[in-house]
Amino acid sequence: MKFTKMHGAGNDYVYVNCFSERVDNPADVAIKVSNRNFGIGSDGLILIMPSDKADVRMRMFNSDGSESEMCGNGIRCVAKYAYDHGIVGKKEISAETGAGILTLQLFTNEANKVEKVRVNMGRPRLTRSEIPMTGEAGAKVINEPLNILHTTFHITCASMGNPHCVIFVDDVENFQVEKYGPIIENHEIFPRRTNVEFVQIISRTEVRQRTWERGAGETLACGTGASAVCVAGALNGLTEKKILNHLSGGDLELEWAEDGFLYMTGPAVEVFSGEIEI
Ligand SMILES: N[C@@H](CCC[C@H](N)C(=O)O)C(=O)O
């Protein structure tokens, strides 16, 4: 199987061009290639596929083999791959994902390679049934208490196509992400598990985020998570609707615009290509 390793702010995936390659059992392939000792090493697997509804289609699998509806850092890399490798020839493209069809704007360098991508991530979905969470279907979850191991956290939840639980903390660098992340990910109030963002407010326009990802553990960045953080900060009155988010592997710019859509801008990087026997 031919593959290309790419990352967005350090959130790294193995990408397969399914315009020319075929992957029959993507969940198993994701587990195999993601292994950092016995595989290629990545947070998961992303398939770049033809679409009958958009310029390109993305399917995304976490390192545990579970499929997610959406990946914010992944979709920027899919756009870069599609442009740099001649699948699309324009700088405004559409992409089909499990979270619907998204539009992306590509920014190129002097060598006409994509360096940065702005994604319309769609409108955040805020009700318990949309996230999904147990409880009253139409209710929003803003600053709601959740008890974990004798500690009370306050959670704000949103779906960006995939589920997110945002928790604001005082000192995120020293926060025990590995201790609390998996317990919240698998908490019974999240029937399809959840991604968890631990966030420190720096100012009304700047935050620092660490992410515990559903199906992958702590990663260096999460684009859908950063988008959910922008929404959660505004809903709690802690931040403006336009912020710079410092993630462990790089920065993302987020804007929850007046039209209700969430715009994410960030880097996309190709690292290397190769072949692996599956
Ligand atoms: N890192 C991604 C999100 C990947 C999927 C996530 N772990 C899930 O299961 O929903 C991003 O950049 O959004």
Automatic annotation (TrEMBL):
Q: Does the keyword Cytoplasm apply?
A: yes
Swiss-Prot/TrEMBL keywords: Amino-acid biosynthesis, Cytoplasm, Isomerase, Lysine biosynthesis
InterPro entries in the record? DAP_epimerase_AS, DAP_epimerase_DapF
Enzyme Commission (EC) number = 5.1.1.7
Q: Site positions for Could be important to modulate the pK values of the two catalytic cysteine residues, renumbered to this chain?
A: 164, 213
Entry superkingdom:
Bacteria
Q: In which pathway does it act?
A: Amino-acid biosynthesis; L-lysine biosynthesis via DAP pathway; DL-2,6-diaminopimelate from LL-2,6-diaminopimelate: step 1/1
Instruction: Look up keyword Isomerase and say if it applies.
Output: yes
Q: Which residues cross the membrane?
A: none
State the reactions this protein catalyses. Answer: (2S,6S)-2,6-diaminopimelate = meso-2,6-diaminopimelate
State where the protein is found: Cytoplasm
Mind listing the GO biological process terms from this record?
lysine biosynthetic process via diaminopimelate
Primary site of residence: cytoplasm
Name the catalytic site residues: 71, 222
Q: Name one GO cellular component term.
A: cytosol
Report the top EC class in one word.
Answer: isomerase
A GO molecular function assigned to this protein is:
diaminopimelate epimerase activity
- Sites binding substrate sit at 11, 62, 72-73, 162, 195, 213-214, 223-224
Q: What does this protein do?
A: Catalyzes the stereoinversion of LL-2,6-diaminopimelate (L,L-DAP) to meso-diaminopimelate (meso-DAP), a precursor of L-lysine and an essential component of the bacterial peptidoglycan.
Tell me the protein family, please. Answer: Belongs to the diaminopimelate epimerase family.
What's the subunit arrangement here?
Homodimer.
HAMAP family listed in its UniProt record = DAP_epimerase
What is the protein's name according to its record?
A: Diaminopimelate epimerase
The opening ranks of the lineage are:
Bacteria, Pseudomonadati, Thermodesulfobacteriota, Desulfuromonadia, Geobacterales
Its gene name is: dapF
